[in-house]
Amino acid sequence: MSEFLLAWLTVLPSYAAPLLLAGLGLVLSERAGVLNLAPEGMMAVGAMTGALTVLGGHDPWTGVLAGVAAGTALSLGFGLAVVVFRAEQTLAGLATVALGLGITGVIGRAHVQKPFEGLARLSETGWGADLPRLIGQQTLLIPVALVLLVAVWWVLFRTAAGLRLRAVGEDPAAADVAGANVQAIQLAAVLGSGALCGLAGAYLSVASAHVWVEGMVAGRGWVVVALVIFARWRPAGVLWGALLFGGTEALTLRLQAVGVDFPVYLGAMLPYALTLVVLTIASLRRGASSGEPSALGFIYLRQDKH
Amino acid sequence: MTAGADAPTPVARPGPHEGTGRAPALLLRGIDKAFDGKPALTDAGFRLEWGEVHALVGENGAGKSTIMNIAAAVYAADAGEVVVDGRDVPLKNPADAIAAGIGMVHQHFRLVGRFSVAENVALSLGGAGRKCSVAEAARLVREKAAEIGFRLDPAARIETLSVAEQQRAEILKVLLLGAGILVLDEPTAVLTEDEAQALLSLVKGLAGQGHAVVLITHKLREVAGYCDRITVMRQGRTVLAEAPIASVTMEEVARHAVGETSPAPVRSAAESAGAEVLALKGLSIARAGGGLAVDGLSLSLRAGEILGIAGVGGNGQSELVACLNGLLSVAGGHLDINGVDMTRASIAARRAAGLRVIPADRFDSAMARGLTLAENLAMTEVPTGAYGGAFRLRRGAMRKAAEQAIADREIRGGGPATQAALLSGGNAQKLLLARELAGGARVIVAHSPSRGLDMRAARAVHVALVEAVAQGAACLLVSEELEEVIALSHRITVMNRGALSAPLNAAEATPARLGELMVGHA
Ligand SMILES: Nc1ncnc2c1ncn2[C@@H]1O[C@H](COP(=O)(O)OP(=O)(O)O)[C@@H](O)[C@H]1O
Ligand SMILES: [Mg+2]
């Protein structure tokens, strides 16, 4: 039993980390009032670009950075559409997902199922040889993700820039009167979310699977959208949500691995069933304080000066 | 005083402002301003001295907010000059006005509801280029609050505060931004009497320290004791400028504000009122934010008459109309229609009894933008089965009825299949009247029925109401437009703080008399 528990806890971080990273990205964008439904597409682009970079002969860290860049680039398109051209945010988000999946389908087709040498585990690096298994099995991206968690919290709640970003998401008109550049802040927040989603995608391919397969994000982007609601748009909540959702996914896979008779499809369904439950609960307590930014999805246009 | 670098700092100077030789705090001259070609200000002017509280008075739509928004650089003037403290500064953005030391507290506060007072202050100071942490902002708020003598918890979230406290937060914010010139737009409108007194003493104290304060208000009587001078505007012009408060009477001010022109009445001759069709007995309605919006209101409306309810908006009119419509429940008292108690009756039952409501915002609770004219017209009759049963709608009949109504009411701008949203305001209102005044209307409640309409459309609305009443219906006309109320009503009462004055007959109801009742005099 304790062997099972240890095995589960050992794989848990690699299931939780992509959700954590992309969730933090969404918190950034949605705290600035931009509804971001695009993580599925941004993660796919990040995952594929990371994998192709490594397959092209570069080292895994370069692959990770390439994934970040790809996610950022896709989010630039989304950001321009919603912030500058004021496209409807739901539609623009869905279109971005389709675009991201389409791009990865076309470019990545020739490179599917080619394994590569991914990011090293800590135990495989020179100085991590005698770490306990629970830690040694992780890549350096796990502590990086935790640092990013603290960084996002710090920026949002302890800096003037974060105050302004949250003001834009709560009441863009008031923020505007207070001298904040609403559009620049929203665009920056969207780019930040693209970078973090790209990193989450690169994690899946370069740190975790060491291969690129089409559809490898497999709905995690949608889970993230729900997770952020569960987290009430708080970084710490994203961590708990990532552990819960990632833990469930890891658990079903561990159970199958040890041969527990467990319908495969039921197991694969569990994270999504959990998502539905979370969304229902979130909507039930919406009245109290869901934490939803008041101007989320709202397109602000300064009243024309007459 | 933590004023910005260029902001004129008020000098501590007690007493009146005359004869100090200092340039006026704010001088607006020859200001013209039109919105979409419609003039809102014509050669308007305003002069404010340091150390005074200056009341800016006038009816709704007189241009008070507009001229001060020009001073605060929210709007750009079409013509005229703005001089701040003797300097001709270019005011292009609200930020320029803030830098020049002008702080405006708008009717709708510009505060982030989820943020604390200190966070809001930090946000604004940061926006004005003064780096400031939330902790520092909290300290500034505490110091300033103590200095001007009121209590405000810097850590309290705005949305948990009362309106009066939010107003204090807004004033503090503006002062911390370095405002020497303070413009308060209808600040007492949202306050209780005690809160208003507290605010006015505060404002007086600020003027004593050398600030210059503009108080925009409808309710002159409330502020009279706290002001040094008064300026009155009417229809975009300054009609009485910088009169020392002691030198004018309330009556004079009311006359200046309202004017003496009253148009030829459209009123129907039949003043012999019939049976009582609507009776309100001690009706009370709760206000959304707590307290009572309407407090123990009674009235009696008879068939064949128009009873006008005049008054400044926000005194409970919207709640009264929504309650009659059945959209707000009653906190106390009774509502009878045709002698039957309908206090808790459903909207359908009220309609069946002949109640028809023309709300102030037709697309809010009367019509659907996205539906066609024919659908909007048929909407109220479909549930009664007039256009077919549950499984089949007689669209042909709907179209015919719509064609008829369009011809009868001279609705222009579309046919039965046109979307209602595409109609101009006047035609949309005619469409609504066509529906509500058709057959069975016995009690018509019309709230600002000609708001936003041009003269012709307004006249058409008035004629339609008068005709309906001539045919035996009764009309309760709730309007902020004094001329409309005077022109149409047989009896007139004024709504003030959720209560009605004793009704006046049409002959007694002069603009001056009603103006006095509206500002709370008598
Ligand atoms: N932003 C705007 N767009 C169009 N018309 C406006 C705007 N603001 C004010 N007006 C019009 O200008 C006139 C003066 O309005 P306002 O200054 O708000 O009056 P007051 O504050 O004295 O009640 C009114 O006729 C009003 O309808
Ligand atoms: Mg106004």
Cofactors and ligands: adenosine-5'-diphosphate, magnesium ion
Cα-to-Cα separation, first versus last residue of chain A: 72 Å
**Which class of chain A in CATH terms?**
Mainly Alpha
Rg result of chain B: 26 Å
Helix/strand/pairing class of chain A, anyone? mainly alpha
Report the CATH topology name of chain A. Answer: ABC transporter involved in vitamin B12 uptake, BtuC
What fraction strand of chain A?
A: under 5%
Terminal residue distance of chain B: 41 Å
Helix percent of chain B reads 25-40%
Tell me what the structure shows:
- The complex is a heterodimer of chains A (306) and B (522).
- With 306 residues, chain A is an all-alpha fold.
- Chain A is 71% helix and 0% strand.
- Chain A has one domain: ABC transporter involved in vitamin B12 uptake, BtuC.
- The model of chain A has no long low-confidence stretch (mean pLDDT 90).
- In chain B, helix 3 packs across helix 4, helix 3 packs parallel to helix 5 and helix 4 crosses helix 5.
- Chain B has 17 helices and 20 strands.
- Chain B has three domains: 155 residues, P-loop containing nucleotide triphosphate hydrolases (Rossmann fold), CATH 3.40.50; 173 residues, Rossmann fold; 72 residues, no CATH class.
- With 522 residues, chain B is an alpha/beta fold.
- The relative contact order of chain B is 0.11.
- The two termini of chain B are 41 Å apart.
- Chains A and B meet through helix 7 and helix 8 of A and helix 3 of B.
- The complex binds adenosine-5'-diphosphate and magnesium ion.
Write the SSE topology:
The complex is a heterodimer of chains A (306) and B (522).
Chain A: H1 2-31, H2 39-55, H3 60-84, H4 89-108, H5 133-136, H6 141-158, H7 160-170, H8 172-177, H9 182-209, H10 220-230, H11 235-257, H12 264-284, H13 286-289
Helix pairs in contact in A: 1-6, 1-9, 1-10, 1-11, 2-3, 2-4, 2-9, 2-10, 3-4, 3-9, 6-7, 10-11, 10-12, 11-12
Chain B: E1 26-35, E2 38-48, E3 53-57, H1 64-71, E4 79-84, H2 94-99, E5 102-105, H3 117-127, H4 134-148, H5 163-176, E6 181-185, H6 193-208, E7 212-217, H7 220-224, E8 229-234, E9 237-244, H8 250-258, E10 276-286, E11 292-302, E12 306-310, H9 317-325, E13 332-337, E14 340-341, H10 347-352, E15 355-358, H11 362-365, H12 373-378, H13 395-409, H14 425-437, E16 443-447, H15 455-470, E17 474-478, H16 482-488, E18 491-496, E19 499-500, E20 504-505, H17 511-518
Parallel strand pairs in B: 3-7, 3-8, 5-6, 6-7, 12-17, 12-18, 15-16, 16-17
Antiparallel strand pairs in B: 1-2, 1-4, 8-9, 10-11, 10-13, 13-14, 18-19, 18-20
Helix pairs in contact in B: 3-4, 3-5, 4-5, 8-17, 13-14, 14-15
Bound molecules: adenosine-5'-diphosphate (ADP) and magnesium ion (MG).
